[in-house]
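REQUEST ID: PR-0412
SUBMITTED BY: lab tech R.K.
PRIORITY: routine
TASK: structure prediction, single protein chain
INPUT:
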Amino acid sequence: MNIEQIIKEKKGCIVDVRTPEEFRGGHVAGSINIPLPEINSKIEVLQAMHGPLILCCASGGRSGMAHSFLSRLGVECYNGGSWMDVNYLQTLTTDTK
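STATUS: complete
OUTPUT:
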């Protein structure tokens, strides 16, 4: 399954790993903010979420680090890259209804 399909079919959760300040400046509708430094302490929360998880940040670097860490723990997740790219994909799915 690819990210576009997950978003279109609303099969996962979008997790933004940017800082709370960045998140307040703009984010994907319906996404939750768990900053990268907090990922380790929120493992149980992330594992309990409706998966797969789509991770995003400003450019894909931090979401890539979160993806690598969570994947090693067996969490089904994808690096969505920039939150703006994920937002664009979500906009496409809502525009087609």
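NOTES: The CA atoms of residues 39 and 45 lie 9 Å apart.
REVIEWED BY: pending
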